[in-house]
Amino acid sequence: MTKVGRSEAHRRRVPAIAAVVALFAATPACLAYDGPTFRSGLWKFERTLETDGKETNRLQASGLLIAREMTRCVDPTSAMKAQFTPFGACKPKNFRKTDGGYVFQKFCGSGAPIETQIDVRGDSAYTLINEGNIGKMSTKETVVAQRVGDCRHTGS
């Protein structure tokens, strides 16, 4: 290849490389996960629901019973990423990092926003609180999660 041919090829590559760099620089910050990270393993979850300040064991919207306690093998970081990511009609907004965790709102359709607070206690425990309204009724969901051990793997 002659010097002129190499120079022409170089001139074509520079704009392509610049376009790729500009694309990554323009990627929205919301796509980068900046939330808490937790250790995978056996986790215990304790969940409570309140409607108008009174504890209940049923989901207000559907009337279904909830499991108040559950212990299972999970990767809580993956589940937490879902809290920070738009899903269906729900869009998280107004993120604030606090001394002990995170606070943000989820907007789902035309309904009132759901205020979410996540208090992080290291890589092995957290409390998640969702508060909002269904019509004129106030609702509050609290999940206290703690890693209780390693998962047992069964061999084949």
Task: Briefly summarize what is shown.
The protein is of the alpha+beta class and 156 residues long. The protein has helices at residues 3-25, 76-84; strands at 41-51, 54-56, 69-74, 90-97, 101-108, 114-120, 125-134, 137-149. The protein folds into 2 domains: 1-31, no CATH class; 33-149, no CATH class.
Could you explain how this protein is built, in words?
It is a single chain. The protein has two domains: 1-31, no CATH class; 33-149, no CATH class. Strands 1, 2, 3, 4, 5, 6, 7 and 8 form an eight-stranded antiparallel beta sheet that branches. Helix content is 21%, strand content 42%. Mean pLDDT is 79; it is low at 12-30. The protein contains two helices and eight strands, in the order H-E-E-E-H-E-E-E-E-E. The chain has helices spanning 3-25, 76-84; strands at 41-51, 54-56, 69-74, 90-97, 101-108, 114-120, 125-134, 137-149. It starts with a helix and ends in a 7-residue tail after the last strand. The radius of gyration is 23 Å and the shape is globular. It is of the alpha+beta class. Strand 7 and strand 8 (137-149) form a beta hairpin.
